[in-house]
Structures are given as structure tokens and as C-alpha cells.
Amino acid sequence: MSVERPIFIPVILGTTRKGRASENVARFVHTELRKREGVETLLVDIREINLPTDDAGEAIKDSGFSATVSRADGLLIVTPEYNHGYPGMLKHLLDTNLKEYIHKAVGICAVSAGGFGGTRVIENLLPVMRELGLVTIFWDGNFSGAQKLFDKDGKLLDESYVKRLDKFLKELIWMSRVLRYGRENVSLD
Q1: What is the mean pLDDT of residues 24-36?
Q2: For the chain, percent helix, then strand, then coil, each to nearest 5?
Q3: What is 7-185's CATH superfamily?
């Protein structure tokens, strides 16, 4: 019996701002994903990727991030909603790769201070994901009132998010497996 290699799904923390409430969400999501059998993950903090801002696209590609995305079977993006949109630095980073994304699953966890849980940032990111060649999953991760979801040590205060995230992660893992099988076994010809 052959052992299937683990699905690799990095979690991308999509903001560089100080005091970001989405950092706790990213750590929580990453911890929950690590618990899944047959899944390997990595927390990618875009704050730690030094991208020049005087150029764009593949001209400023970070080799480490590019290698992570190339190896990935799916991506999980944790992004705050800033004025109904996504952080510019997240878009700047995502635009540095193209072929690395094709036919890979992506799930988006949105974080907001308000009650809509980042719904608007997800709506704004969906066409971007499609243009990059990523396949969005059916479920979203919505984290409302993010500044009150965790204690000062980063511990989740509302356990209902564990169950909500479970459905999201199952879909992302399933889609990542299906698309990996397709990329490796089904020709586009």
C-alpha cells in the first residue's frame, strides 16, 4: 500500500500593519489546519517578506515565497478588511507569482472589526483569485469583531469559531486534493 504524500496548504497572513487583529486569526487557523491528518502547513507572514515597492510583478518575485506557492496544493489567505477592500501589500505580494497558482485551491478567511466578518473583502478578492488562476472554495471564513475574539495572550474566546472553521477546512482540503490529482493526472488536451 502506498502512502499518499501530505497536502501542503500554507496560511498567508495578508497584512503588514502594526497591531493587526488578523494575526491572532491567522495563528488560530494555522493551528487548526495543523491538526488535520494528511495536511502539512506553514504560516507565511507577509511582514517578513521584503518586497521592493518601486517595481511590481515577477520582477520582484521573492524566491522563498515563490517556492512555497509552487509546492502548495492550496492556499489559505487570512486578510483583514480595510475600508471594504484588501491590503495593498497583500495584492503586491500575490502579483509577484502567476504560473505557481494555476489550478490550485484557495480559501479566504476575512477579518473585520465590524459585524460583517470581512464579507466585502472576500467579494473584492474573488475576481483577483480567479485572474491568478486559483480556484476558490465554496465556504469562507468570516471573523467579526476581531479585536474581541482573542484574549491578550492570543487565546480564542468564542469556541463557535472552531466548528465554523471545520467546515471551511474540510472543503479546502478536499478541493486541494482533487485539484492536485487533476494537475498530476488529467491532461488539458
Answers
A1: 97
A2: 45, 20, 40
A3: Flavodoxin domain (3.40.50.360)
